[in-house]
């Protein structure tokens, strides 16, 4: 079975952003180098076929071991199918080019199920090709924020493991036509799902200076957001990522060595247009009800806006604490839905081979046997 469907509201872009003069997170806490790491590792020539762009999976063995609930994977000898042969239902919420999914499949039994999600139509084509050869794989072209509904449509109400490798993939950056790159020219698009929603260019045409500045500050921690927003809004059109990057560069008064001045602004617009943080919040909240007792959650993030959310979510639901909110009474019985979470970073060997891994963190936890209460705070 291969499920490809579209939900008109699943990738709905934001129509507004909180007009907060300051983000909740201090400027020093954000790591804006993830996109820079990715872009600076780009090769000079791009393949002509979109399916040929490659992605080096980050924290590969660590994440697959985590989602299976084992300390490590068995060493695989050449040509040897020495997998763990584990049954159950697993979800890879961010298929990309399937690096994690393929290793996971090598450890799963013939009767296991792997459901893969991605917003990106090209990633979905690769996933469908895999599904045509491996009947354990089921494909959902949608946001992982639709987790519960998408699984329910397949008759699934609980799973053994959930993994997500957040953000954008190397193929998305390397293909200039997608608009994510400030080093390759293309239309100013930046949508992960090109089949729906508004592109950054369309949004820039109608957004006001102040809202744009707030987005640059909130999602990119760009200190010079107002000046950059003004310069962007003075542009005649938004047809070229290189032109946009050049305008940001000119407007930016404080260049940092080794970092393109448009790094934070591009990150901010990308996070905003794809509703990346909202989707992560929705996915995490749904993981509580979807994971079986003893099921595993494993999430890789590449910048602190995401990592902080995952950390706080797991802390809240492993310690049984709810957010400090004076207006809400503390419930007498605070459920602990997850075991004490663990965090793993990349090895030196991995970061020297793959610069993109430098800013990655994997956070993982096991679902406890505490019954889910519908009223739980996300
Ligand atoms: C870092 S890549 C994943 C790479 C993958 N683990 C691999 O080994 O090839 C992230 C992928 O997640 C997808 N993605 C990001 N946010 C998503 C969301 N909310 N729902 C579904 N897919 C999403 C992107 O389109 C991209 O293909």
Automatic annotation (TrEMBL):
One of its GO terms (molecular function) is rRNA (cytosine-N4-)-methyltransferase activity. One of its GO terms (cellular component) is cytoplasm. Its main location: cytoplasm. The keyword Methyltransferase applies. GO terms for biological process: rRNA base methylation. Residues 1-47, 316-378 are annotated as: Disordered. It holds the Pfam family Methyltransf_5. It catalyses: cytidine(1402) in 16S rRNA + S-adenosyl-L-methionine = N(4)-methylcytidine(1402) in 16S rRNA + S-adenosyl-L-homocysteine + H(+). It is an enzyme of class 2 (transferase). SUPFAM superfamilies: Putative methyltransferase TM0872, insert domain (SSF81799), S-adenosyl-L-methionine-dependent methyltransferases (SSF53335). It comes from the Bacteria. Keywords: Cytoplasm, Methyltransferase, rRNA processing, S-adenosyl-L-methionine, Transferase. InterPro entries: RsmH (IPR002903), SAM-dep_MeTrfase_MraW_recog (IPR023397), SAM-dependent_MTases_sf (IPR029063). It is found in: Cytoplasm. S-adenosyl-L-methionine binds at residues 98-100, 118, 144, 165, 172. Residues 30-47 have a biased composition (Polar residues). Its EC number is 2.1.1.199. Residues 1-29 have a biased composition (Low complexity). PANTHER family: 12S RRNA N4-METHYLCYTIDINE METHYLTRANSFERASE (PTHR11265:SF0), S-ADENOSYL-METHYLTRANSFERASE MRAW (PTHR11265). Belongs to the methyltransferase superfamily. RsmH family. Specifically methylates the N4 position of cytidine in position 1402 (C1402) of 16S rRNA. This is Ribosomal RNA small subunit methyltransferase H. It comes from Psychrobacter pacificensis. The lineage of its organism: Bacteria, Pseudomonadati, Pseudomonadota, Gammaproteobacteria, Moraxellales.
